[in-house]
Structure formats: C-alpha cells, structure tokens
UniProtKB/TrEMBL annotation:
Necessary cofactors: Mg(2+)
Catalytic-site annotation from UniProt: 117
Assigned protein family: Belongs to the NDK family.
Name of the protein this chain belongs to: Nucleoside diphosphate kinase
Gene giving rise to this polypeptide: ndk
Xref: HAMAP family: NDP_kinase
Keywords: ATP-binding, Cytoplasm, Kinase, Magnesium, Metal-binding, Nucleotide metabolism, Nucleotide-binding, Phosphoprotein, Transferase
E.C. number: 2.7.4.6
Sequence positions that bind ATP: 11, 59, 87, 93, 104, 114
UniProt-listed NCBIfam families: PRK00668.1
Length: 140
C-alpha cells in the first residue's frame, strides 16, 4: 500500500476538554506520523468554506458555529494507507456506532460534537491539506 497524507482536525469539543495529546497518541499508536500541526481558531465563514460540501445539509449552520466556537488543531497525518487508517482510528461519525477503542467511541460527545475530522478520499485529502497548509509546512 502506498504512503498517503490525510487532513485531520481535532475539533472544539476535544480542545475544550484538553484532549489533544490523548488523541495524538491514538494516531501515533496506529503508525500515523503527525508531519504538520497547528492550533487555530476558525471564523464561521472559514468553517463554512471548509465544509462547503455539506452546505445544503440541515446540520450545516450548527456544524459551522460549532467549528468556530473554540480553537481547533489542524494536522497532516502520513503513513501507509493513511486516509483509511485514520478513518478507522476515528470511528464512525455517530459515536453510538463507533467501534470500541476508536477516538469517537472514547471521546465524542454527540454526532455533531465528535472530536475529530478526517479526509475521506485522496482527492479530498489533497484539497483539505492545501486549505490549511502550504507545501513548505509539510515536513515528512
Ligand atoms: N454532522 C452532524 N450531524 C449529522 C451528520 C454529520 O452534525 O447528522 C457533522 C459531524 O460533526 C460530522 C460532520 O458533520 O463529523 C461531517 O459529516 P460527515 O458525514 O462528513 O462525517 P465524517 O466524515 O466527519 O465522519
Ligand atoms: Mg466527512
């Protein structure tokens, strides 16, 4: 399997509860390398641009308000099959459906406030990485 890069976000519910280190340990234990990372606070408009694919969904307003409500940690994870591996470590969107041991099973508060974002395919990973990082900031 090829080495890939994927975009991860530690969401406001998790930064509020001081869970950045515990979540990063889950990535590193799974063999994912954090090759870029920064803590930022998004505006609601920036959150809306990032989640533009969901703009017609009923949860869009709530989602973008939540993502702008407190700092997030944006990061690039690298490893063999990193996109699918990260989705595995994250667990299902709804924590009620997330497998034991996954980030969302252990830490998520609800389907909306679910602690992490992860890219879902190679094309979206490339787009989402370039939304937050320049090539100079990626040190693999
Ligand atoms: N979301 C929500 N309600 C829903 C579905 C999704 O609030 O019914 C939020 C949730 O924070 C989720 C994000 O919208 O992580 C993006 O949804 P997606 O279906 O892409 O889930 P993900 O890829 O994050 O698992
Ligand atoms: Mg998604």
């Amino acid at each position: 399997m090829a080495v890939e890069r994927t975009l991860s976000i530690i969401k406001p519910d998790a930064t509020n509860r001081n869970l950045t280190g515990k979540i990063n340990a889950k990535f590193e234990d799974a063999g994912l390398r954090i090759i870029a990372q920064k803590r930022i606070q998004l505006t609601k408009d920036q959150a809306g641009a990032f989640y533009a694919v969901h703009k017609e969904r009923p949860f869009f307003d709530e989602l973008t308000s939540f993502m702008a409500s407190a700092p997030v940690v944006v990061q690039v994870l690298e490893g063999e099959g990193a996109i699918a591996k990260n989705r595995e470590v994250m667990g299902a969107t709804n924590p009620a459906d997330a497998a034991p041991g996954t980030i969302r099973a252990e830490f998520a508060e609800s389907v909306g406030e679910n602690s992490v974002h992860g890219s879902d395919a190679p094309e979206t990973a490339a787009e989402e990485i370039s939304f937050f990082f320049s090539g100079l900031e990626l040190v693999g």
